[in-house]
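Re: your question from the hallway

Yes, I did run it. Sequences:
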Amino acid sequence: MPELPEVETVARGLARVMEGARIAHVQLNRPDLRFPFPAGFAERLAGQRFEALGRRAKYILAHMSDGDILLMHLGMSGRFTIHEDGAEGRPGAFHHDVNTDGGTNDPHAHVVFTLENGVRVVYCDPRRFGMMDLFARSELPDHKLLKDLGIEPLGNELSGAFLNQALRTKQTPLKAALLDQRIVAGIGNIYACEALFRSGLSPRRLARTITSAGGATARSEHLAQTIRDVLSEAVAAGGSTLRDYVQTDGELGYFQHRFQVYDREGDPCVRPRCSGTVGRIVQSGRSTFFCPVCQR
DNA sequence: AGCTCGACCTGCACGC
DNA sequence: TGCGTGCAGGTCGAGC
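Structure:
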């Protein structure tokens, strides 16, 4: 469940129970996810308090009381569930959880954080494309996975002028440029498709063709606005739920009901008076959904 | 340096 | 029913 709106939703859900809470115990059920857990991961976290949780791109960052940063990525299938009924073994408040042991019986429950107040936070990730790292705050600016990330699309930096500059020399298709985390960080396959549809721009068009030497163009301005709009609407909706629950409390995100092209191959274009049919092509190894009639 | 593509994993939906 | 195929919200790094 991993694009910016889903990660933001998860980070907020985790913040609600983690911020201010102290870790009693961390259980690792395997040595690695996408990468091995760093040496002493569980032992170093035990006893530390969560001071603040936030998001950068599709990463969740927890600032810990001993000055460490706990960095987490959900990959494609990572999920956190919160079990506030403690270790009693009762069926949880988390009603989507089919296990009565609070999720730890799930074969893909790889990490279990037990807080001193009895709350358990369980990380499940069937495909194990997610990752966790733990390092000193001083290493944050040069962290390998974070240092090359581009701007936050919901911050003040995203503008037509920014996109014009960033895409000015890009020979890659526009869709691929939106997926490039070094430019704008946090856009994934769904929201790239949706933003391009809203902006009326073809995913196949070379990125530099929406720019000009003179500065922002109408197209770059429009794209900046549609990126901002679609992501902020999705955050407000609690993200999108595709194949499973999104939020830490088991609530469903509902932005998927507002997809206009994603996963709608063969549907008529929703744009009024457009006669097009949503098509699907493969770019950068990923499905792109778009209307070949009104996206030019 | 810029760009494309395969690799990493499991699960599920589909057609035969 | 069972099996093979293709697909899934990401991204790292090899190779051109």
